[in-house]
Amino acid sequence: MDAVTPWRRLDPRMLVVGPAASLVRLLPVIVIVLVTGQSDVMRLWFPVGIAAVLVIGGVVRWRTTRYRITPDRVELHSGWLRRQRISVPRDRIRTVDLTARVLHRLFGLSVVRVAAASGVMAELQGLRLDAVSTAEAERLRHELLDRPTVAAPVEDAPAVRSRSWPGWTGRGCGSRRSRSPRSPHRRRRGPLFNLFGELGVDPRDIAPVDDAASRLVAAPLWFGVLTIGVAVLGVAVVGALLLFAERWYGFTLTREPSPDGDGALRVRRGLLTRRSLSVAEHRIRGAEVTEPLLLRAGRGAQVRAVSTGLSRDAQGGALLPPAPRAEAHRVASAALRADPAQITLAPLRRHPRAALRRRLTRALAPVVLFTAGAFVLGAAVPWLAWLGPTSLLLVPLAALLAVDRFRSLGHQLTSGHLVTRQGSLLRRTVALQRSGVIGWTFRQSVFQQRAGVVTVEAVTAAGAGGYEVLDVAAADAVALADAAAPGLLGPFLPGTDPDLSVGAASRTGPA
Amino acid sequence: MTAAVALPLRPPAHQVSPRAVLWWRLRALVTLVLLAGPQAVLLAVFGGGPGWLVATALATTAVVAAYAVAVPPLLYRIHRWEVTPEAVYTLSGWLVREWRIAPISRVQTVDTQHGPIEQLLRLATVTVTTASARGPVRIRGLDQDAAAELARTLTETTQATPGDAT
Predict the structure, then answer these.
(1) Which end of chain B lies in a sparser environment, N or C, as judged by fewer CB atoms within 10 Å?
(2) Interchain proximity A492–B132, CB inside 8 Å
């Protein structure tokens, strides 16, 4: 224990923001009580009571939460009745991310989340400081990732620099001034978005809406279905656009160099909730280019860092919003400091014909079963007779899917990376550093055994924890693993004698 | 079945304890009680019950009993393990066979577990955790003493290796 380093508290502004954030979360309950409450006493005292509890809770939380950064560890003590002490060794820190929701942004605060290496239970989740001032958060981020305290100007950073391409997120995505966390006029716009909801306006009370509804009832059925369909589609499109803007507005990716030549990649994004994620470069084990079917059809792709300590949600480790494919590969190559032809654009080796047969069987068998069922049902129930012929349409679709899944399959071993690709509806190309492979798993089902193929999984500490090369010939699988990590498989190749020096005493069966 | 291994790796050197066969059978028995028990209770309470309930109860019993008779010896023949100074190597699985190789240098923790039936049979499971999110390497059905000895050796080897194993 280090007695010298002083303890620090969360930002005093949390005394306001903490209770306010809880209040927003409890709003539905309060509204229900206010609406259904019978007596005035209940209506008056219930909100006052809740407010008092929240304020007291906020004060207690602020008073009891302390943190400090010693040369070796980050420590967080919190809780009053149930005390919690978290201590994370600094050399286990993988990523530091800053998040500022609307309320936090209004007060210039940021939540700091420190993710540490998994595997050791106590340190599984890292720790969370909710919240400190944005300036303090920036300082912590630099300190924890061993960056110089003054951020290097972005112009000095080599290579990686990507932004949303022009015309997508519009104003502000390119201007550094508008991204500055200190410009107050930008912070105050957020709450307006919620205004409509907070006013509690019921759309049905508005005369034109009421009028439209009654017309819809009077119109023929097909017209109603069509109108509602178009409306749902419109809402979905607008919703998707808003969600995209909320996630990716003001996106920047920068590399922050450090004196020892080992930098960090930093992603900043978000409209209402600003997020900043920093990944130490020496923690990055590879990159993943994902192409969902529709994005692939539009020649687009998304890039993700394969790194330890990243959350596994949809945006975990994303280095780029959906972008043109060429840009995706360029960013992957810049992030890994490798030639694209050595990583995600490497020419891939095809998989054996058995893999195609397996794709076809796996796609067609359920569809054929379903179709057969549909015909039987159609024969039994007269008014469902159309079901069988219609379901025949699924057969060519399934065949197409299978062929595309086979065409996506591929793998290659380049000088520094293992590259593997699979998937049709969601095609993923992963380039994993060979030095990041911490083990191998070979899997073979009964069917695969008959087809003479096997699935190899390169196990890694980063990202999803393991990346598969699907359905390769058994001999190629072992050769691939042996070449990717020389020496590891050597003792287990056929013709070698088992080394019985370890665990020989526990040998119970015939060798 | 073991002769048809299509992977050009030799199987690991050691088999698990022969008592593991009994352990797998007892586990199947527990499954049988959990699955068929409620159905039998229903039948007893309602004195007969619908025909399909009798059928499902009989089918459950037949399937689990067949599994208990046929599969554990197969598992015993398939399940193998080996620890060299460089790596932990295991082979397991029945319908989907799985070969796992983890370098000792990447091992983070080693522990042994004894479930209730395992304790009864003096068996243990050794769990070798690496930094991967894809789960630890498990060696099931080892003799208790052998498992303790193995865990001790592994821990010593692991502690001698520097780094945080990622």
Answers:
(1) N
(2) no
